Amino acid sequence: CSTANANIDPTRVHIVDTFNFTSTNQRTYFFRGNSPYDKDNDSVDYNTWVSTMATVANASGYVLPSNDRLYLVDINLENIFDKGFSQEQAFFASNPSKGSFINWELLGAPLWPTAFTPAEVESMIETGKVWANDQIPARLVMFLSMLHQAPPSGYDAVAYYVHCAAGCDRTGEFVGSYRVFTELANNPEAKPVIATIFQQNCAECGRCPNYYSAGALGWYCMTVNYFNRTNMPQLTDCFTAFNCEPLGSCTATGI
Questions:
Q1: CA neighbor of 31 nearest in space, from 2, 1, 62, 5
Q2: Average pLDDT over residues 41-61
């Protein structure tokens, strides 16, 4: 991701998914967005962060509870050297009643399958070597389990806010892979179209994910194909859904 804007960019904040617990009238939300770090004040602007999510939720027909009834889980996809990382971590350490901080560092994929032989690609996927850092398959299972857990006692909703700096690249890798994962889980007979998912990433951020993040989405697509090769139709556009400059920017195929 490129350098974060000063404060939340409302145009990059979106609800990706939500789950309702009808018996308790509670709900969990999966938001994507850019960094909540306010570089002008070297702090986390919590009130603007939450009010932006509330506005986005209202536009989709949902109502976030008051701040004291909302538990915010900050899932930061950056590394410890990125601006705002330590401020976010410190904010939740000092304000545990407001939520918690999780770091799932993503690096993307600097090397695409064309850099390897078919046998090497198969081995990297089968052994999990390709996911040694980003751990996308394992984290998607963990994250979906988190979304399906009711809010803790004393709270009406949990908002999981997944972000990198700009909310485009590493965030696009995670969100795109999540959509592949959940579309297959909800309808195993339907093949997710990577091009459609990638185009949605481009639209939600205002630009497309970069080479590293597009490549990681492609690798996840190939991982899904490999482990489901005997029981579902293969996804066919793992690396044709986007056109990328080497180590640079990308565009969605057909746009």
A1: 62
A2: 96
